[in-house]
Amino acid sequence: MKKHIVYKTEGVCASKIEFDLEDGRVYHVQFHGGCKGNVQGIARLADGRAPEELIRLCKGIDCHNNNSCPHQFALALEKTLQV
User: Fold this and answer.
1) Counting Cβ atoms within 10 Å, is residue 37 exposed (0-12), middle (13-18) or buried (19+)?
2) At a CB cut-off of 8 Å and minimum separation 6, what does 2 contact?
3) Judging by beta carbons within 10 Å of its beta carbon (0-12, 13-18, 19+), is residue 64 exposed, middle or buried?
4) Residue 48 CA: distances (Å) to CA of 13, 25, 26, 28, 57
5) Under which EC number(s) is this enzyme classified (predicted)?
6) Interatomic CA distance for residues 13 and 10, integer angstroms
7) Pick from 82, 75, 78, 83: which is nearest to 8 by CA?
8) What is the pLDDT of residues 36-80, one digit of tens each?
9) Average pLDDT over residues 18-44
10) What domains lie within the chain, and their CATH numbers?
């Protein structure tokens, strides 16, 4: 089953993150705002990976005040898995 997630970020340049979760994998990641090259890189590297792996890789990455777009992505994934 495919689930589309929209996550409003806090404290980073990207205003929201959208992605699909399908068959235990993350697809079609899109950051709205943020540093263009960085968020495109994150999106491409995330495509087809398990959310648990992405959480492990992205959580805790610091850009500003112990927060970053990758960290927000990890929080979005954690929230999605809790539902």
Assistant:
1) exposed
2) 20, 21, 22
3) exposed
4) 25, 5, 5, 9, 14
5) 1.17.4.1
6) 9
7) 75
8) 999 999 999 999 999 999 999 999 999 989 999 999 999 999 999
9) 97
10) 2-82 (3.30.390)
